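Box 4.2: Ligand-aware structure prediction
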Amino acid sequence: MLQPCRPRSLAFLLLLALVLPFRSAAAHPRLVRAVPAAESHVQTMPRALSVTFNESLTIALSRLTLLDPTGQPVALDTVRFASEDTKTLTASILGTMPAGRYTVKWQAAGADGHPMRGQYTFVLDAAPVESTKRTTDTGTLKGGASSTLRGTSRPRVPGVR
Ligand SMILES: [Cu+2]
């Protein structure tokens, strides 16, 4: 009785092998949002990392790691859910962050307990140099622009030509 069934069950197994990866992938947490956002540039040091997934997570299997531009880990507080939101992991940043590109590595597991992992980067831009100097620079630029404008409008003034 098993013998005639075999080709059919083999076909069924093949079908399962094709379908299962998609099914399990759909059941695993997928990153949908991050703060700071992936590939973003931030001007000030963020106080916390926050990553939101498409499904509720198991906190015991969830991890966040922040690596500085040299690849050294930046001290983070314990990873926890953002208030009542079990799809969002957050961790306060305890260490200091010099300017540069940072890597966030995350691990997250949903109901089935299979940890998914991923990473993304963001850039902390260098602190702007003395705001007074910046204003002066902008002023100079503006002055230059307006004198150019005046120059262009000069032919309109009668008598100059
Ligand atoms: Cu799984």
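In the box above, the bound molecule is copper (II) ion. Residues 1-5, 134-161 have pLDDT under 50 and may be disordered.
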